[in-house]
Amino acid sequence: MQASDRFNINSQLEHLQAKYVGTGHADVSRFEWAVNIQRDSYASYVGHYPLLAYFAVAENESIGREKYNFMQKMLLPCGLPPEKDED
Amino acid sequence: MYLYSLTLQRAQGITTAVYGNFSGTKGAQEIVVSRGKVLELLRPDENGKVQVVHSVEVFGAICSLVQFRLTGAQKDYVIVGSDSGRIVILEYNKEKNAFDKIHQETFGKSGCRRIVPGQYVAVDPKGRAAMIGAAEKQKLVYVLNRDNAARLTISSPLEAHKSHTIVFSLVGVDCGFDNPIFAAIELDYADADMDPTGQAAAEAQKHLTFYELDLGLNHVVRKWSEPVDNGANMLVTVPGGADGPGGVLVCAENFVIFKNQGHPDVRAVIPRRSDLPAERGVLIVSAAMHKQKGLFFFLLQTEYGDIFKVTLEYEQKEGTVSELKIKYFDTIPTAAALCVLRTGFLFAASEFGNHALYQFQGIGDDQDVESSSANLVETDEGFQPVFFYPRRLKNLVPIDDIESLMPIMDFKVANFYDEETPQIYALCGRGNRSSLRILRPGLAVTEMAVSPLPGTPRAVWTVKKSVTDDFDSYIIVSFVNATLVLSIGETVEEVSDSGFLGTTPSLSASLLGDDSLMQIHPNGIRHIRSDGRINEWKTPGRMTITKTGYNRQQVVIALSDGKLIYFELDVTGQLIEVEQKEMSGDVACLDIAPVPEGRQRSRFLAVGSFDSTIRILSLDPDDCMQILSVQALTSPPESLLLLDVQTGAVESELGGTRSVFLNAGLQNGVLLRTEVDMVTGQLSDTRTRFLGLRAPKLFATQVHGTRAMLCLSSRPWLGYTHQGHFQLTPLSYETLEHASSFSSDQCPEGVVAVADDQLRVFTIERLGETFNSTAAPLRYTPRKFVLNPTHKNVVVIEADQGALTADELQAAIKEAVENNNEAAGGDKMDEDKPAEGGEDEEKEDPLPEEQYGYPKATADSWASCIRVIRPFPEAKTTCLLELEANECALSLCLVNFHDKEGLGTLLAVGTARDLQWFPKRGGSAGFIHVYRFTDDGDRLQLVHKTQVDGLPTALGSYQGRLLAGMGQTLRIYDLGKKKLLRKCENKHFPNTIVSIRTYGDRIYVGDIQESFHFVKYRKDENQLYIFADDVVPRWLTCSLHMDFDTMAGADKFGNVFMARLPQEVSEEIEDDPTGGKIKFEAGRLNGAPNKLDEIIQFHVGEVVTAMQKAALIPGGQEALLYGTIMGGVGAMLPFTSREDVDFFSHLEMHLRQEHPPLLGRDHMAFRSAYFPVKDVIDGDLCEQFPMLNAETQRKIAEELDRTPGEVLKKLEDIRNRII
């Protein structure tokens, strides 16, 4: 990266977007945004054991199963993506 | 308002556990467990009891633990993955009894994030490298090595990232001394996100990926990636190198698959329970591996609690695996972690409920249901399943039970037993392991023996015959006019040849010198030599001895005229009078500390007088019987005890300070603890504590081999040092008259005591616990309960989704037992007769529910009941109503209807039929049942059942009517003849009402997602108005009414908060005679016209599920108590003075700087994880002050203008105000 590029807002943003999954941009769609939120939430549930336990008690599942379910839901958290407009 | 937050009982659930030798002691078997935010070292002792050796709060969420050992080393290290964005390597330091942080390397942001590593940690089995991974994308590899001084070094991280990839599991692969390899189950979602047709998502395939760390190039490569079963969730390392074939076991739904690079898959099905619904899979949730010379096997546990033993048939040379066998082993409660100990124990950290230590009785070599890769049958519908029936334990024997209240579903505080302090009634556990537990602050006591005595004893002592004896020889009991001597042997019986004088009461009995005995009675001192000679010292004139103080070398007596006489034992073993002293008034009590090791005598004598003073007298020959210091008291002392206390780090040169405390029990029931200067005898730093209504009598006893203090007031207390803290804790036992330590073969550290006309022997269990509990079992997961003050009983609602009802469960168990018997019967035909006996036994005693595990019914079925428990005198279920037709109880409350007072207190229970959570919360119908208490509150009688629209998720009583929250609607009902009659409603709540509290004419409604709403009911208009709400979206888990304008609550993410209506708004609402203001005021921010202020914010770090306001000590200040899903109990105490707030907030500030949390999470950031912490001082951090080294302690204390002793005293004082 050249010295002048460092102050270029776009290059900074691109860097952030590459490094941190979920960093938004001007054209982020409703679907992309929701998917990110959901994935972040599931990762947070899996990371916070007390929260996993809380869900496990509510659903009457074992904590291990609950964790697996949440990881599995990270694949398609909001269902199928919408059809892309051609223009 | 400022609060002091203190954890009373740390979380009891265990999230992960690793096994190893962390102290480096030869043969040590140790387990490091994480309890969410607490890291602990456990060690099973020789009796098979699991002891907590060290416990430290880390102020962060621990996600993963792994242990490793450098080649050739004797000691294991722990790597901790947490939410700190740092990798931390810890070493247990047994001298300091603490974890030392060896390395801490920062790699990312803090917090549990999707792409910040910490979720998974894996280590190379040879301890050469570690990989730390996130749920998605990031993986970092650190090379571990040794420097010249054999210290552990860590490299800078190597990246092994892959974007758009979810990681399910991460382990190190055992490949001997080749380059370290790590295996991960990965799922790429990039295509699925882009493809609107859903084809890519359907084809998304999990892969098993091997990452190789090239030690020569210092570089990580994706070495190998191959598709793996899409149900894969966990990896288990298979021993490699010289010990086995290497590779990994992939645990997937219904299968276990052996995989290795360049090796075909070896797959076997996991046997399933015969009663399992067809749509359910079988998932492995925990695993343990056992490896010894020439043998290794795996224990895998399914989500239903069944353990399977997995073995591999392999060829060592080529490293090929020919067969994988899965054999049913045993069923124990589902574990979050399993550890096989080298000594033949299995430690099972239960997901919910008590943890257990089992001993192996077999390793599953007997005939049992087995599935193998060799006879895997593939049909059109997939692989053919193998079925089994659970049976009672065969290979494991339970040895120890480690209490865990996890999950606390709800608790309330009441005093149904009319004890000095109230009890906590807590709903704990889930499914068939749930219980109502009655918690009392204090230590649990196990009674060993109770025997009646002739007459009412005054006092009791135990004596050893010789210093070298391990156990006591005699129990001496003194009555008003006689002394009874009991000899301790196989049995305890009266003896007359002991040399003790039986015809007089005794003032003391003890060992004197090395092997002679001494009895002091009112008329003299009787010295019984080991050879049977008896020396008597008689009191002069008509004087009698009133008080005594003694140790093994020194004796002081007080005569009835107030004179003190001091004796010492000389070298020939004679008791010689040394000095006399006239005291100004009558002596109330005396004490001499034991002779310090290596000294001739103890230096100080403490004398308490009836003029409310204590004097310290010197016993040195130079200034014998000179008064060194005086302390004036508020009340005459009753009893004295000099006790040395070791505070701070145990066994440490640096941190630990040893000081002598003079303990005095005063007649007004106060215990005074004053530090005695070891050189000058000056008294300083007095701490007081009210113990009870009777003057405390103090006795020395033994706890873990060190001297401790037993205080007998209206209840007994124990003062002892535990993990560097001096603790004074009540015992849950009756009032005692006199006590002494007791040591015998069966009971090495007990207490013998007298009370009324009985002699009692007991031991004290589970030191360090704050509460002890008694449990009443429940059937399903308890959801909510109410205390019924009129009948002094408890009504609990229990409900479980997808669970078998009690009858179905019994039927299933019966079927399993029959089938097992059949199978066993078939085999046993060939064997000898004794097998028959075992079979009979099984029939008589059906399979316990706990061992049957946790069977599942179809997901849409519910089992639920309403239960009445009478806790007093012993918790007993008096009525149990099973709900039928797939109904489940959601809410309950007690209500007195204003126009039906004749009916008395009624119970309303809200239920739902066919309740389901997904895709949307709903059910086919909602009902409110109204019950009446009959038979003095023991039974429930249905008054009527009303169908309501919506699900009644919350109920409350309001001005003689019933309030029901159904989804977004709040409604008022009146009681009719045949059903409830709706009177008024408000439909404008945002989501679902989960709690309703009322106070006066105000209603406080909690929404599941939108915090509190304050509601006013206007009688003249018959309208409910929401006049204020909160601005913060709070996913409420519990709520508590604090005062007219304030509510306390907790949310799903582990925060506790208080919301208050501003004073002027509250006044405006109350002085609004026309009511126009409420009615016409426009809402703001899509809500009510007025907003609540959040005045307290605090992140606890565990989901808080219960809150109560209560004082746990008699006459104490009320504190907010909370219980968490992890089984922890905490308190928040409001400060009463500005001075204290300043002191503690400064202390907290200094500790944050000088003593940052162990895992590198910033303390302030942790307590502010969701909302910035506000006006709460973290007592848990403050209480880590004694863990600091002396130098830092002094530095901080100086900054606070105090001495370290004063800081400790402050900490102790504030704790004593809570519990």
UniProtKB/TrEMBL annotation, chain A:
One of its GO terms (cellular component) is U2 snRNP. InterPro entries: SF3b5/RDS3-10, Splicing_factor_3B_subunit_5. GO terms for biological process: mRNA splicing, via spliceosome. Belongs to the SF3B5 family. PANTHER family: SPLICING FACTOR 3B SUBUNIT 5. This is Splicing factor subunit. The lineage of its organism: Eukaryota, Viridiplantae, Streptophyta, Klebsormidiophyceae, Klebsormidiales.
From TrEMBL, chain B:
Residues 14-370 form the RSE1/DDB1/CPSF1 first beta-propeller domain. This is Cleavage and polyadenylation specificity factor. Residues 446-764 form the RSE1/DDB1/CPSF1 second beta-propeller domain. GO terms for cellular component: nucleus; spliceosomal complex; U2 snRNP. It is found in: Nucleus. One of its GO terms (biological process) is mRNA splicing, via spliceosome. It comes from Klebsormidium nitens (Green alga). Residues 818-854 are annotated as: Disordered. Residues 863-1185 form the RSE1/DDB1/CPSF1 C-terminal domain. The keyword Nucleus applies.
